Amino acid sequence: MAFDEYLGERIAQNLNQRKVLFEEKKMFGGLAFMINGKMCVGIVKNEMMARIGPDAMDEALKMEGCRIMDFTGRPMKGYVFISQDGIDSEENLNYFIELALKFNTELTS
């Protein structure tokens, strides 16, 4: 199963601009960006996955293209998928990466 490599480049560039240390790891037929040893954002096929935590879910789900992650057929609490329409702009990509980074920091503190 292939994943959107251009989206991977956009995410990596965004994290590099923020000077965030990350590791790219192929998993689930896609690509995960691991920060502090934890999955933070990733790509499944042509959608971005973001681990934003349960507290940010309601607000994030109001954004275009955002839905609850259901990779296994069941909703995954604290994870969302964002379609390409939802992350076409750098502003929206930044929004979801920021949410995921904030939650990642909460996990490690």
Report the span from N to C terminus. Answer: 35 Å
Count of individual beta strands: 6
Tell me the structural class. alpha+beta
Shape: globular
Query: What's the gyration radius in Å?
Result: 12 Å
Number of helices: 3
Low-confidence stretches: none
Let me know the largest β-sheet. 6 strands, antiparallel
- Order of the strands making up the biggest sheet: 1-2-3-4-6-5
Helix content, binned percent: 25-40%
The oligomeric state is single chain
**Average pLDDT over all residues:** 94
- Name the beta content range: 25-35%
Descriptive report:
The chain is of the alpha+beta class and 109 residues long. It has one domain. It contains three helices and six strands; from the N terminus they run αββββαββα.
In short:
The protein is an alpha+beta fold and 109 residues long.
Could you name the key traits of this structure?
single chain, 109 residues, alpha+beta, six-stranded antiparallel β-sheet, 3 helices, 6 strands, 33% helix
